[in-house]
Amino acid sequence: MSNAISLASARVGTSLTLLRAEGTPELCRRLSALGLRRGARVRIVNPTPGGGRVISVAGSRIAMDASMLKRLFAEELPA
Length: 79
Fold this sequence. Notes:
Largest sheet: 6 strands, antiparallel
Strand content: 35-45%
Radius of gyration: 11 Å
Helix content: 10-25%
Number of strands: 6
Shape: globular
Oligomer: single chain
Strand order of the largest sheet: 1-6-2-3-4-5
Structural class: alpha+beta
Order of helices and strands: EEHEEEHE
Number of helices: 2
């Protein structure tokens, strides 16, 4: 996987394709239920206090803390 970055390091306004999530099977199922699964297109919308971000996926906005963002890996979509 070339160019894979964690969502924690993605810049606000960036659009990405999710490649993988790291965590327990239960966590991965919960993320999948939120639309955060391989191939999903996500956009970093806003920063939050404490290093988190609001992300947009499948027409929804989800606030995530920095520790969760570090478990999600994606690649930037071409501009």
